[in-house]
Amino acid sequence: MARVNQLIENEDYISYLDKIDFLERERLFCKHGFEHGLNVARVAYAYLLEKEELLLPKEIVYAAALLHDIGRWVEYETGEDHAEASTRLALPLLEACSFSLDEIQVILKGIREHRRHPEDNLSLLGAALALADDWARDCHSCSAQARCYKFNLTMNQVVY
Ligand SMILES: [Fe+2]
Ligand SMILES: [Fe+2]
User: Fold this and answer.
1) Which residues surround ligand 1, an ion (CB under 5 A)?
2) Which of the ligands is closest to the CA of residue 72?
3) What predicted TM-score, i.e. pTM, was given to this entire model?
4) Are 40 and 65 in contact (CB under 8 A)?
5) More reliable by pLDDT, 41 or 139
6) How many CB atoms lie within 10 A of CB 38?
């Protein structure tokens, strides 16, 4: 996991997380900082293990999950869809951490797809991120349930 550890220490990565933390400081709903990325990584990887879809190395899954919302601050500032912004911002970070072109293509596709419906003919990584993005949330004990558009009974029942 050397390259993922390198990503976590990357100055630009940290600066994007800082911007997100600042812009979400008064947000009632789920936030999109480092903790969310790590939760999505763990759940997506567990999902792939359980499905016995071992085609994706752990480093690929973790890198994609840690980067999938990195463009949230761009969406807050400009209105650009954050899946697109995250995909753009992730490219130089992945290059800096020595991911290969083939690996980068898989990761960027997964990030770009993470907001789509998991059954919408997505790549394996895109579907894992889309599912984990919901399952990684702690809806069960959330005080904002009643006002959250994402909350539904299914999420309330998920214990992943
Ligand atoms: Fe997202
Ligand atoms: Fe997310």
Assistant:
1) 69
2) 1
3) 0.93
4) yes
5) 41
6) 15
Q: Which domain holds residue 126?
A: 2-157
Nearest in space to 106 (alpha carbons), one of 56, 48, 156? 56
Count: domains in the chain: 1
* Residue 139: predicted pLDDT: 79
Residue type, 131: L
Helix (H, G, I), strand (E, B) or coil at 80: coil
- CA 18 to ligand 1 centroid distance, Å: 17
- The alpha carbon of 142 and the centre of ligand 2 are apart by a number of angstroms equal to 16
Q: For residue 114, which ligand has an atom nearest its CA?
A: 1
Region 27-42 average pLDDT: 94
Return the CATH number at 132.
Answer: 1.10.3210.10
Other residues' Cβ atoms within 10 Å of the Cβ of residue 105: 13
